[in-house]
Amino acid sequence: MLTKSSSLMRLVGELKKLPGIGERTALRLAFHLLKAPHNLTALAESLQEVRNRVHACSTCFAVTEDDPCAICAGNRDAGTICVVENSQDLMALERSNAYQGVYHVLEGAISPLGGIGPSDLRIAELLERVGRGGVGEVVVATNFTVEGEATALYLTKVLKPYGVKVTRLAHGIPLGSDIEFVDAATVQWALQGRNEL
Fold first, then answer.
1. Which residues, in sequence order, are bridge partners of residue 139?
2. What pLDDT, on the 0 to 100 scale, is given for residue 192?
3. C-alpha distance from residue 182 to each of 88, 141, 157, 160 (Å)
4. pLDDT for res 20
């Protein structure tokens, strides 16, 4: 009987560990993979390849197959470093094609309740990069959460002695939104960060 299949249940258990995947979705994915055995083989091969080839860039700590990554090794403005919490944030910024500097991935955000302090992040490596000179601006692009804001404040404090310009991504009302439907905190940020026309 399938419900007693330990290998199937192990697959379901492993799929459930993925973010946003519950019991029913994991079971549905497992049965989908079983319908076509070549799907299982392709998935197993791609997981093995990722495990063997993908690692953190030794300069910016973004996920990459090459070291240094294409951005660090490329023809980007090394005088501007954009600090992000994770590689997914870096990819989102890259999709915009609006930023031409380099990055630094912290691999998280300060979260005292979660037991994550500054020493648990790649802040020392950022300070080392800035301390070598040649950096004129650090763009703090942490998320607009309590943890992201705490990290931004901490970075501002520790970068001040280096004499670099520290900027923060703009935040406020999204393009195409009606003000009446935007939450009060976002409206407050938008008013505080207003620009002259």
1. 82, 167
2. 79
3. 25, 22, 31, 34
4. 95
